[in-house]
Amino acid sequence: MTKNLKKNALFGLSWTTLEYVVMAGIQVIQLSVLARILTPKDFGIFAIGTFFMTLGNTVFAMGMGPALIQKEGDISDYLDTAWTANLIISGIATLILLILIPFLVPFYFKESEALYPSLVILSVVFISGLNNIGLVRYYRKIEMKRLFIYHALPKLFGALTAIYFSILLKNFWGLVFGIVTEFLLKLILSYILLPRMPRFVIQRDKFKELYNFGGWLQLKNVFKWASNNIDLAIVGTILSTSMLGFYNRAITLARLPESQISKIINVISFPLYSAIRSDSKKLESAVNATNNLVLLILAPILLITLYGGEGLVNLILGEQWLYLTTSFQLLISAIATQAYVISFTPLLRALGYPKYEFFYQVIRTVLLAIFIYPLTLHYGIVGAGLSILLATLVAAPYIFIKLHKIVKLNFLKLTLSFFVSFSCFPIIYILKYYYYSSDITNLTFIVESLVSLLIFLIIIFLFSYIFKLGPFESLKKTYEILKKSNK
After folding, report:
1. How many structural domains compose the chain?
2. Which of 40, 98, 127, 187 is least surrounded by CB atoms within 10 angstroms?
3. Quick one: average pLDDT of 85-103?
4. CB 62 within 8 A of CB 218
5. For residue 336, what are the domain limits?
6. What is the rounded CA–CA span in Å between residue 254 and residue 330?
């Protein structure tokens, strides 16, 4: 790993952490405002539209971007082929879904009102295919300042558009206009930030070389989409559109940490691991740092949501949404587990084993397919949340078994960091049931959450200070190593 890449990794982590805070803040504010303007049915209709959008963007994605990041040497000659392949496949996906949507929306989801919103949201699939793939250069070099602008500005203007039109129209069209605005701005910014116009050309040898790596990721994406959306499909057909709206808000709120953690690990960890994969010492140090960063994000989120779920839902969405609290708590437990597991997948990808990501998604999808229908049928959206948690917990060991076979890591250190991060949970449990107030108000929730977070920070600091264990200790050592190497 070059000196510049080490330096970029440190600055990239700062910018990506800032992006995490900004993006999460925008999404929480958007959720909070729109939940007080729109009805559960509006969100249910929007969920049907985004179901098809994610189908087009995820299932048909060929993994060209990750293939370019992982590739050694100059990638200039590959960019046009990768961009053209993405554009062609997004066009095909859009045409296929244009044919399917008029049949699936009224007959499967039994919600004719969702037809036109779904068709408008579908435009995002083709817009995404037009994006400037040259931005992958910034990912390779971990130059995150421009990528922060690329992600944050469209998200901000998309949220403002959604809020404005939701207030004006008081229906789901505000959500539709918001998401289309976001992706249009991302398209425009991709060419402003890197003013290079791609050529429409496919070179067979280059496409084959990229797809030999990206093909496994596309297969993985197919099953990832299925595992992330089969619950929406089942909830949408078994329960009402309004229940789908409740569930959509619960899972949207629950997925906030996963989506941001995924960005951090894919943007920082994957190119970093790819650059240092031949140096086992540096690789282990980087894996420890990523593990501890993820734990420092996930543990406080789980702490607040598991012990203050009703207060959090009341604060962000409002009292009328308290019905989804139990489902939300199950979902965030499942998605936090999933986020922790997938934080190790960039290591598999960097070492040249993307197929294991695919097999993991297959296992998780099959398990979810087994659990989802009976549990949703009997327990509604709570059953849907429980099925995701069960599928994730049962599938998780597969990733760690494969990692243990192909790379030498100190799994004891990783395990100790995990237990240190969650060691405060029994203490908070006692406080919750014996000392915290039973009155759900925004003020009591905020005060109790701050007390819980303070206890969490004190405990992991003490483990670092006394036993030299846990996230603080590992991150401190990693930072010192990187700091010395940049002098």
Report:
1. 1
2. 98
3. 91
4. yes
5. 3-485
6. 9
Q: How far apart are CA 248 and CA 45, in angstroms?
A: 10
Three-state DSSP class for residue 390: helix
pTM score, whole prediction: 0.78
Report helix, strand or coil for 51. Answer: helix
Tokens of 168: 């004006």
Give the pLDDT confidence of 42-79 residue by residue, as tens digits: 999 999 999 999 888 877 666 677 677 766 677 778 88
* Residue corresponding to tokens 């690329």: 150
Q: Residue 143: which of 275, 286, 21, 12 has the closest Cα?
A: 12
The closest of 107, 392, 399, 123 to 231, measured between CA atoms, is 392
pLDDT of residue 1: 44
Q: Has residue 5 got a pLDDT over 60?
A: no
C-alpha to C-alpha distance for 367 and 387, rounded to whole angstroms: 9
Calpha distance 216→121 (Å, rounded): 27
Q: What is the 3-state secondary structure (H, E, C) of 248-314?
A: HHHHHHHCHHHHHHHHHHHHHHHHHHHHHCCCHHHHHHHHHHHHHHHHHHHHHHHHHHHHHHHHHHH
The answer to whether 139 and 150 have CB atoms below 8 angstroms apart is no
Of 75, 60, 227, the closest CA to residue 139 belongs to: 75
